[in-house]
Amino acid sequence: MTRQDAVAPVSSGVTFSGLDHVELARRTRRWGWLHYSRYRQAAEKPFFWTAFVTAIGNPVLYLVAMGMGLGSLVQGDVDGVSYLWFVAPGLLVATVVSTGAQFGTWPIFGGFKWMKNYLAAQATPVEPWQMAVGEGLAISVRMFVQAFLFWLIGLAFGAWPGAASLLVVPIAMLASMAMFTPLMAYSATLEEEGLQFNFVQRLIVMPMFLFAGTFFPLASMPAYLQWIGWVSPMWHGTQLARIVSYGMENPPWLTVVHVVFLVGCIVGGLLVAARTFTRRLVR
To answer: Contact 178/265 with Cβ under 8 angstroms?
Structure first.
């Protein structure tokens, strides 16, 4: 008898929302990733106002401090545009990617260790790989909303030169997922808490934020530090965001590299996460 058969009784006499248990289990097996995504979104409702205030406050602080404050000290243009136009796409992408990194660490680990929501879902027809996909879908929606709020606030600061800059929103979401999914796969392998996530923040996320071209062109850095940008979803996302925002010059082949890198991280991260979730839950 399979796990699905065990949780989906043969009896059709008891119904739930007009469906018998067999049909309900069948639909859950088919759409488990969507059901789990809706659960994750519902679980975030108690933190709505905290997330909303943070999503509003961060862009205001960053654009005032960096775009206008530091920008007033920058002499001349950067990459042919004002410093505000240059730094705004980088700040948007960096902020959303950093949030994706946060969601890919402690919340995933806690789902196994403390909250045990993955173990609860395992008692249903939802498959482990569907949990991983559902996590990704839920976080992608949140990252899209956060990026859109940042873009709206940027309008008030004059940070966007044209309507095409709206494309920075899906680009930032893409970059964020390129960070989230590999970390989700890694976090699902951890049995006990330690200093791993502190190292992730201090040795991976923070160097990306500082040295991945957010505040100045990557080419202006020493060659021995430029590799931080090359392997960073933050830099690839920032470059794409600057292309659509103010038309940054970029060779077509390099634009393709940026897209392929981000998509590759997402697909690879989801595949590995699905595997680690399955290994962790099916023993």
So the answer is: yes
DSSP letter at 230 equals H
Is residue 95 one of the residues assigned to a domain?
Answer: yes
d(CA 55, CA 223): 34
DSSP per residue, 170-222: HHHHHHHHHHHHHHHHHHTT-SS-SSHHHHHIIIIIHHHHHHSSSSS-GGGS-
In the three-class reduction of DSSP (H, G, I as helix; E, B as strand; rest coil), residue 82 is classed as coil
Total domains in the fold of the chain: 1
CA distance 251 to 167: 19
Q: Is residue 20 part of a domain?
A: no
Which tokens sit at 181? Answer: 């999914």
Phi, psi of 116 (to 5 degrees): 60, 30
pTM of the full structure? 0.87
Nearest to 183 by CA among 170, 174, 196: 196
Q: Backbone phi, then psi, for 80, in 5-degree steps?
A: 85, 5
Per-state percent for the chain, helix, strand, coil, to nearest 5: 75, 0, 20
Residue given tokens 């007033």 in the structure block: 72
**What's the pLDDT tens digit per position in 105-146?**
999 999 999 988 898 888 888 899 999 999 999 999 999 999
**Please, which residues bridge with residue 16 across strands?**
19
Residue 224, domain extent: 48-281
Bridge partners, 19 (sequence order): 16
Could you tell me if residue 216 is inside a domain?
Answer: yes
Picking from 227, 275, 269, 224, the residue whose alpha carbon sits closest to that of residue 103 is: 269
Hey, what are 147's tokens?
A: 């990026």
